Structures are given as C-alpha cells and as structure tokens.
C-alpha cells in the first residue's frame, strides 16, 4: 500500500485529520481508498496537504468518497469552463456580493454556521473545497463537529431539544435569520443576485430534519443549522422559539471550531451529515475563488413538511 502521512487536524480537537501523500498514483490504490474512507468516517473531516493544485485530481479524490453531485443551476460557473464535470467555481468580484458588518468590520463572502441542503429533504454526503484565488486576510472556512456539539450542549437544553425536528426554508438572506445571529451583525449590502432565489424559495415547502440523530456507530450528532432555520416542527410557538434560540446560542457559545487558512496546495472534505461549517469573510475589495465538488449520499431522515413535493432548485448546494 502507498504511504500516507496521517496526523490529527489539531491535537486539542476530537475531529479532523491532516493527510499528505495523496496524488494521482496513490489515489488509485484500493487500500489507500479504503483507508481514506475509514479515516473520513471516524474523523468527519480531512485536510489534504501538499496536493497538486489540479481540478482533475480534486475530482479523482472526491470520487473516493462517493459519486459526484452536480449543481442543478446551469448558470452557476463550472471550473475551467466545465472541463471537469462536477467542479463548480464559487467566486465573486470585488464589491459584487453580500457585504456585512461583523465585530465592527466590513466583510464579504461571510457565511454563518450551517449544514448544506438543510432546506431540502435530502442532504449531501460531503463537500470538497480548494482555494484558487486567496485573499490577504480572512476568507477562512470554519468547521465544527456535531458529535462534539452534542456533548458540549447544556444537559437541560439537550434533553429539551432531542426528539424534535427543525424546519428550514430556502431563505439565504442573513438579515432574515431568526436564530443564532451573531451580536453586532449589520447587513451593509445584500446579495442582489440571490434575491430572485430567495423570493422563489418563499413559495416552496419547508424541509424538516432532526435536531439530533444517531450514527450507526451509536454516536449522537447535534445537527442544527442556525442559518435558514424556521422553528420547531409542530411547535411554532413563542416558547418553542425561545428553546431553539437558547440551543443555538448555547451551541455557538461552546463551539470548538477549526478555521482553515487556505493555501493553493490544500483541499478539504467534510462530512455534511455530521459537521457544520462557516466562512469568516474577507475584505470586500478583494476577489476570492474556490473550486467545489459535492458528494452524493443522504442519511434518509429528512422530509418536506406535509409530505409535499420539492423543487429542483432545492438541490442547490449552500
């Protein structure tokens, strides 16, 4: 078997691994592929270091973990003009997208803690990211483990929220967040291009996902996305809203995250059924470009409110 160098992501964290030695040759080794899948399942996230910055290699490594899922919106830019199916480009020019004030500082491309596809009945198994054009400061992607969050949550709140389902809608606007919004947040400039999607999303059924779910390993996962959460299924009352807000605030106060500062030779995969992720934001005058692949694979626990039918746009990855 090819040699891999595997280390903890950080010594004080119960999740994540750092791996070097993955390239076109080693990724073809069946034993390497099996080992990578096992590490991913155990640690929830892998940081591949010293990688060749190549979209084709990103595709080959992504396929180790499952089939790729392409973005359903045809206008979303594809990496290198679509030369590598499944790889999308996430980018914006200076001053183009959303601009918010966080902790007294204007940033763009900021994203609050969430899991992908929370507004859809089916999730995706994982996301894979590389940085193509970095920024001078910020632009870090944060990751936090739902297994760890479950253990850290105040026991009383854990008892109260476990067994409940959370409602989610396709409302991407941060200023509309009802739960877990950071203190000192101010919206300076909304993302104009997304407004049509937000308006359309208001007509679509809400998705339902468990606040806590149990892995085959027996580990319980606190899996709540403060972004796009609408409330507790079957209990849209002031009391239930206070409970969900208390859970979100307690979760965010105790979260033990890892924030990754990107290099061109890095690639990260995270378990979307287990992890939350966020983006710190960066100077609005600087462009930033990421390449992303998405891995298919659902946990089978989500559904649409009232057993309604969804819409293809709800397969978009956010």
TrEMBL record:
Q: Which InterPro entries match?
A: AtsK-like, TauD-like_sf, TauD/TfdA-like
The alphabetical list of record keywords is: Dioxygenase, Iron, Metal-binding, Oxidoreductase
Keyword Transport found: no
An example of a GO molecular function for this protein is: metal ion binding
Q: Does the keyword Iron-sulfur apply?
A: no
Which ranges of the sequence are coiled-coil? none
Q: Where is the TauD/TfdA-like domain?
A: 6-294
A GO CC annotation recorded here is:
cytoplasm
Top-level taxon in the UniProt lineage: Bacteria
Pfam families membership = TauD
Q: Which family does it belong to?
A: Belongs to the TfdA dioxygenase family.
List the protein's name. TauD/TfdA-like domain-containing protein
């Amino acid at each position: 078997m090819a040699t891999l160098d595997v280390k903890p992501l950080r010594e004080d964290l119960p999740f994540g691994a750092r791996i070097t030695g993955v390239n076109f040759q080693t990724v073809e080794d069946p034993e390497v592929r099996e080992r990578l899948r096992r590490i991913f399942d155990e640690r929830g996230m892998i940081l591949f270091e010293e990688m060749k910055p190549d979209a084709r290699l990103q595709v080959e490594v992504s396929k180790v973990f499952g089939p790729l899922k392409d973005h359903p919106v045809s206008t979303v830019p594809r990496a290198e003009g679509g030369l590598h199916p499944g790889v999308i480009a996430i980018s914006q020019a200076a001053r183009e997208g959303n601009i918010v004030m966080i902790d007294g500082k204007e940033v763009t491309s900021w994203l609050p803690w969430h899991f992908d596809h929370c507004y859809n009945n089916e999730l995706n198994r994982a996301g894979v990211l590389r940085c193509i054009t970095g920024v001078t400061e910020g632009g870090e992607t944060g990751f936090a483990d739902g297994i760890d969050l479950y253990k850290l949550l105040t026991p009383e709140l854990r008892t109260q929220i476990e067994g409940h389902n959370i409602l989610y809608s396709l409302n991407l606007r941060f200023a509309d967040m009802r739960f877990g919004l950071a203190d000192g947040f101010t919206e300076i400039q909304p993302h104009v291009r997304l407004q049509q999607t937000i308006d359309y999303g208001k007509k679509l059924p809400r998705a339902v996902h468990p606040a806590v779910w149990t892995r085959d390993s027996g580990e319980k996962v606190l899996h709540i996305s403060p972004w796009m959460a609408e409330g507790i299924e079957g209990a849209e009352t002031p009391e239930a809203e206070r409970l969900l807000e208390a859970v979100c605030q307690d979760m965010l106060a105790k979260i033990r995250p890892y924030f990754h500062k990107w290099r061109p030779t890095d690639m990260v995969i995270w378990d979307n059924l287990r992890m939350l992720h966020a983006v710190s934001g960066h100077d609005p005058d600087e462009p930033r470009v990421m390449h992303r692949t998405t891995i298919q694979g659902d946990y089978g626990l989500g559904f649409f409110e009232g057993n309604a039918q969804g819409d293809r746009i709800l397969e978009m990855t956010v």
